[in-house]
Design a protein that fits this description.
heterodimer; A: mainly beta; 6-stranded mixed β-sheet; 11 strands; globular; B: mainly beta; 4-stranded antiparallel β-sheet
Chain lengths: ~110, ~110
């Protein structure tokens, strides 16, 4: 039973355009959501997070949107750069820091 | 400031041997989590530990796997009598006591069972 799902295994975007990565969750107890970025042979690195009391959080080129009624969050990267090419994981936690991860989306940004 | 340190980075074991994976959390972090990533899959939670306590081990197989986080020293994930299906990347993460804060990950240990 996957509580956090990323339905797109891969996404290809042209440099300079917007990348939109999506994530759906089922557990209504989740109250904190995070995005991690992962390069091959490295550990995930934290990118951006959002609390359930907000619907948007922005940090530079990265913005996370949370739609609680739809149990959906998305990560927008604009403008996309070739260095953004990586696997992106969304994660969620409920009253604590134990994270439940989605399956990941491989983003490829073409020059 | 050292991040989460995992060693070894690569570990090769024959079927039936034991694998010991070590994780030193960020200094001052008292929460440690272990995750496993099978090839072409996402990160699966295994176990959540605080110093000297296992808080949640719901993601860890009941047999052959154990974890500890002693008062002194690193957290250890131990896999006894390894099988080919244990081949995966094992990631450790740590976080402070404060809730709703990001966990920091180590570089992982890639276990290969031959």
């Amino acid at each position: 039973d996957q509580q956090v799902k990323q339905n797109s295994p891969s996404l290809s975007v042209q440099e300079g355009r917007i990348s939109i990565l999506n994530c759906d969750y089922t557990n209504s107890m989740f109250d904190y959501f995070l995005w991690y970025k992962k390069y091959p042979a490295e550990g995930p690195t934290f990118l951006i997070s959002i609390s359930s009391i907000k619907d948007k959080n922005e940090d530079g080129r990265f913005t996370v949107f949370l739609n609680k009624s739809a149990k959906h969050l998305s990560l927008h990267i604009v403008p996309s750069q070739p260095g953004d090419s990586a696997v992106y994981f969304c994660a969620a936690s409920a009253a604590g820091n134990m994270l439940t991860f989605g399956g990941g989306t491989r983003l490829m940004v073409k020059p | 400031n050292a991040g989460v340190m995992q060693n070894p980075r690569h570990l090769v074991r024959r079927r039936g041997q034991e694998a010991r994976l070590r994780c030193s959390p960020v200094k001052g972090h008292s929460h440690v989590y272990w995750y496993r990533q099978l090839p072409e899959e996402g990160l699966k939670f295994m176990v959540y530990l605080q110093k000297e306590n296992i808080i949640d081990e719901s993601g860890m197989p009941k047999e052959r796997f154990s974890a500890e986080f002693p008062k002194e020293g690193p957290s250890i994930l131990r896999i006894q009598q390894v099988v080919r299906g244990d081949s995966a990347a094992y990631f450790c993460a740590s976080s402070p006591i404060i809730e709703n804060t990001e966990a920091f990950f180590g570089q992982g240990t890639r276990l290969t069972v031959v």
